[in-house]
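Hello again,

I reread your note about wanting to compare the complex against the isolated chains. To keep things tidy I'm splitting this into two emails, and this first one only covers the full assembly. Below are the input lines as submitted, including protein chains and any nucleic acid or small-molecule components. They are followed by the predicted structure of everything together. The single-chain runs will come separately.
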Amino acid sequence: SQQGEEDPQALSIQEGENATMNCSYKTSINNLQWYRQNSGRGLVHLILIRSNEREKHSGRLRVTLDTSKKSSSLLITASRAADTASYFCATELDTGNQFYFGTGTSLTVIP
Amino acid sequence: DGGITQSPKYLFRKEGQNVTLSCEQNLNHDAMYWYRQDPGQGLRLIYYSQIVNDFQKGDIAEGYSVSREKKESFPLTVTSAQKNPTAFYLCASSISPESSYEQYFGPGTRLTVT
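Full-complex prediction:
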């Protein structure tokens, strides 16, 4: 299966700390995207990084991509209680048209 | 407001009944998707459609059917052939299936079959 694997499965930190979660995948991709899901809700797109990019920033988010290791990381700096959610990576294969979602990291930010 | 709507939010059915989940978008997106999410799991693709009157099976299409008669609508029918239908169902759309575009998700429908 192409499905990505996020690591760790769950993460609990204090407000103000940084949160890092990782995603590994199996086959060549066009791009990798990170999504956020609040409990019982739909997913919200956070950031997209293409296969020829190594790092992208968006506000407090920093994403890296290492295609040689088939892995990506999402860093949330200066976390807030409102960042509490599940975070998923989604990979688009280089054959296109489909996204494969990972199993998610559940982040809890303690006020 | 632009976006994707799914209805109802909660749905209860008896085993053996077919049930149709609604998904509507007013974003003028070409591509639409249906995913299933089980507790503590990621999303798994059921069906997707790149254009009106066309759709393809995803990884777990067995026991499901879809139609795409209008660009705005992509209803999903969960049939009695689906062995474990209780799950959270998410509909999504993207502006185009041909490039690296983000997906916009609806709020989801939680289906419980007893």
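For quick reference: The two ends of chain B are 35 Å apart (CA to CA).

B.
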